[in-house]
Amino acid sequence: MFAFLGAILGTAVGVLPGIGPAMTVALLLPLTYTLDVTSAIIMFAGIYYGGMYGGSTTSILLNTPGESASIVTALEGNKMARMGRATAALATAAIGSFIAGTLATVLLTLAAPWIADFAVTLGPADYFALMVLAFLTVGALLSGSAVRGLISLSLGLFLGLVGTDTLTGQARFTFGIPNLGDGIDVVIIAVGLFAVGEALYVGSRLRHGALPLIPVSGKWRTWMTRNDWKRSWKPWLRGTAIGFPIGSVPAGGADVATFLSYATERKLAEEPYKKQFGKGAIEGVAGPEAANNAAAAGVLVPLLTLGLPTTATAAIIISAFQTYGIRPGPLLFETQPALVWALIASLYIGNVVLVILNLPLVGIWAKVLQIPRPYLYSGILVFAGLGAYAANFTVFDIGVLLVLGIIGFLMRRHGYPVSPMVVGAILGPMAEEQLRKAMAISQGDPIILVQGAPSIVIYAALAVFLVGGLWLKRRRRRFEEVDMAADTDTSTMHAVEADIEAETRRD
């Protein structure tokens, strides 16, 4: 029941324009405070998967990706919708998400206990190396500019240090304000940066008028033809095979997975269909959507086994665990086995609920997209304020929320990503704790940080991830430039044809 409720809420909020999974999860997190821990985490899993799926509807019908991982879906899906094939694009996205999510959850079930057993053998220096890996890859790869990503990460680390030092008992960066003695709640950081910052940014650029929504027609049972099924099933499987391992590594995430899946499908497409890429190829929707949802399950591997959030959404999920005094990591499978396996079981149920709900109800979600932007974002601000107040029931937190929202607005205005900031705020205190433990063991000798074999392997992997990730970003930028050039050429050709036709009529 809670998985069903979470899937409905996650889809309903995630389908709104400009709202990605991270913002969906941050907004709905306060709703779980009144539940017991197992029910809350199960509902949270439904919200997570529902928010992931909702972004595809917005990308296809409005060409408005709620997150960077949905950009590839918008590239082909919106063009399919303009050709009158919105139903086929939505169907292949829904079915691909179900297949990829289910297969990836099976892999999570098999891999997580083994990784947890291995993680128990790691020492403080190895954990610190893992967190450095997460810091640098998230900061450098989750933004258009590595420098701006690292600046955003540094701001998050600063927010994570605000409060009282656990070892010395000294106040740090509290500026004499008693309310900051316990630090800034991660939920307030996430809601402020994502929800309030986005609402202020959209409000500053708000344009009046109805959204250019593409209508959905036809019965869902007849959305996909036999040829569509034939062209989609291989991309679904390939997307799963690409998305899960990339989502599982600390430098992964859905962005890289969706781009790799799109590039793979473009290269492997049969000759009659290869020319459709950039104009509405169904493979370009099926593969990336499967990779996106497989990576979403893969992200839970480092989160549950190592306690490492590799995406902003994962960082907010960790904050949900911390709300109940639970710390994800290798001991979680021993100390809270019922909770972990209930969470994984709810992922299976959530996948089934999503595909049952979203195929017949996509017309209703399309109606939700017609909510006027002023009403939509004013409602988001109200729920964000209520969520911040519910964290500690103090008005001071609402003021902190507003300040963080203004920071989030300024970051968006000047092109700085907010995801590394949230990850830094979560991982900063953990990294500090592991570093202090390692230095205490070595009596202040920093050589311990690079002595163990796991640490050396992790730092070597960091170099590979950074080089490979930057190369992939350059390739993605080149693809986008080629697609934009193709669109420009097409527009120019249509304009020339229109001018010729007008001159012919005048003659």
TrEMBL record:
Alphabetic keyword roster: Membrane, Transmembrane, Transmembrane helix
Domain DUF112: 1-422
Top-rank lineage group of the source organism: Bacteria
Pfam families: TctA
Presence of the UniProt keyword Membrane in the record: yes
InterPro entries registered for this protein in UniProt: DUF112_TM
Annotated transmembrane regions: 88-115, 127-143, 150-171, 183-203, 299-321, 341-366, 378-411, 447-472
Name of the featured protein: Tripartite tricarboxylate transporter permease
Organism field: Agromyces archimandritae
